[in-house]
TrEMBL record:
<protein>
    <submittedName>
        <fullName>Magnesium transporter</fullName>
    </submittedName>
</protein>
<feature type="domain" description="General stress protein 17M-like">
    <location>
        <begin position="27"/>
        <end position="114"/>
    </location>
</feature>
<feature type="transmembrane region" description="Helical">
    <location>
        <begin position="75"/>
        <end position="97"/>
    </location>
</feature>
<feature type="compositionally biased region" description="Polar residues">
    <location>
        <begin position="1"/>
        <end position="11"/>
    </location>
</feature>
<dbReference type="InterPro" id="IPR025889">
    <property type="entry name" value="GSP17M-like_dom"/>
</dbReference>
<keyword id="KW-1133">Transmembrane helix</keyword>
<feature type="region of interest" description="Disordered">
    <location>
        <begin position="1"/>
        <end position="26"/>
    </location>
</feature>
<keyword id="KW-0812">Transmembrane</keyword>
<keyword id="KW-0472">Membrane</keyword>
<feature type="transmembrane region" description="Helical">
    <location>
        <begin position="103"/>
        <end position="127"/>
    </location>
</feature>
<dbReference type="Pfam" id="PF11181">
    <property type="entry name" value="YflT"/>
</dbReference>
């Protein structure tokens, strides 16, 4: 999958990686990204030059979905778990440089130190919010609609192909 922020396929060597507005003529508009993806897939299956196609999200929104309430137990449990993973990693690296058979000591020391530091950092971070954000969430950037653009020399062909796709029933899930 390509990075949507680099625009590497349309960049010339030596040019800076700056955001650029999309170019092309609209050949389709869809309410979900999945529908826009299906349209571009249909174009690709029809031997359309998809390297000249762009999917543009219009009317962008940042959606934050609340996933749960934060409590001291959840905060400390998460801190201990993340600290344990990091401590285990450090302990395993230290264990690789110890004499044969004595690797378990550094692994346990790293694990213990990781849990302790994870607990402390999680507690300090949560206490510093003073109850202003007692919930966990996941953020996502979504669009109100997704336009499919094609370069002008292929726009008419693209519209015709997408009109044929619109006549087909969507695949069942």
């Amino acid at each position: 999958m390509s990075n949507p922020f680099t625009g590497a396929s349309r960049q010339t060597p030596g040019t800076p990686n700056l955001p650029t507005p999309p170019t092309g003529w609209p050949i389709g508009s869809y309410s979900t990204y999945e529908e826009a993806q299906r349209a571009v897939d249909h174009l690709a299956d029809s031997d359309f030059p998809v390297q000249e196609v762009t999917i543009v999200g219009v009317d962008l929104m940042l959606v934050e979905r609340v996933t749960g309430r934060l409590t001291w137990g959840r905060v400390l449990g998460g801190g201990a778990a993340s600290g344990a993973w990091f401590g285990l990693f450090v302990g395993l690296i230290m264990g690789m440089f110890t004499p044969q058979g004595s690797w378990i000591g550094p692994v346990l020391a790293g694990l213990g130190a990781g849990v302790l530091f994870g607990l402390v950092f999680a507690a300090v971070g949560y206490a510093s919010t003073r109850g202003r954000r007692d919930f966990s969430s996941a953020s996502q950037l979504v669009a109100g609609r997704y336009d499919v653009l094609a370069q002008p020399r292929h726009a008419e062909q693209g519209r015709d192909l997408l009109a044929k796709l619109a006549m087909k029933p969507p695949p069942s899930q």
